[in-house]
Amino acid sequence: MILAMIIGMSLVTMIPRVIPAFVVDKLRFPNWLNRLLNAIPYAALGALIFPGIMNVIPDKPYVGLIGGIVAIILAYFGLHVIYVLVGSIVTVFLFTL
């Protein structure tokens, strides 16, 4: 019984994830919809990252903001994501000393 439930749950989870991989290539969206869909990952990242930036140190939200600004500046110059992360981490570390 438990094995049947596990297999059923895995199928119910897998099917909605696999079908779009085969269908999306055949669909043609208008340009405005393509731009909207391409912007969604950035909006989702912003919604996930910003609250974390504000709560790096609960008593000092400016430390997270400064680290976020440093990350934005480093990313603007086109640095690799590892350098952006290390730069923002070092900045937050230096402001917490």
TrEMBL record:
Segments traversing the membrane: 6-24, 36-57, 63-96
Alphabetized, the UniProt keywords read: Membrane, Transmembrane, Transmembrane helix
Source organism, top-level taxon: Bacteria
| InterPro entries associated with the record | Brnchd-chn_aa_trnsp_AzlD
What name appears for this protein in its UniProt entry? AzlD domain-containing protein
